Amino acid sequence: MTSIIDIHSLATAYGKTQVLYDVTFQVPQGQCFGLIGLNGAGKTTLIKVLLGLRKPTQGSASILGKNPGDNMIKSQIAYLPEKFEPPPFLTGFEFIEF
Q: Model pTM?
């Protein structure tokens, strides 16, 4: 079965603080999944890696077989952060286009 998300031995840190260490999992096509854990467990950091907003210090991550941040991948996914503040100078339509 094809994996939509494939993470292997992923690690990343903020300075000297290790946030993710040796994370490995796959999400098969058609499967629903969620990330659960305490505050500070690394859920948001993992999402940032998958979105291409943060680089791992080791290991790899892919979405649909492509590297996070790939333009084709960006056109296939959406992300809405918990604290969302759209730019006030854009109309709703302009923001969607952006």
A: 0.79
- H, E, C per residue of the chain: CCEEEEEEEEEEEECCEEEEEEEEEEEECCCCCCCCCCCCCCHHHHHHHHCCCCCCCEEEEEECCECCCCHHHHCCCCCCCCCCCCCCCCCHHHHHHC
Regions of the chain with pLDDT less than 50: none
Answer for the pair 61, 52: CB distance below 8 angstroms, yes or no: no
Q: How many residues does the chain have?
A: 98
List the one residue out of 21, 24, 19, 22 whose CA is nearest residue 42. Answer: 19
Which backbone phi and psi does 7 adopt, to 5 degrees?
-120, 130
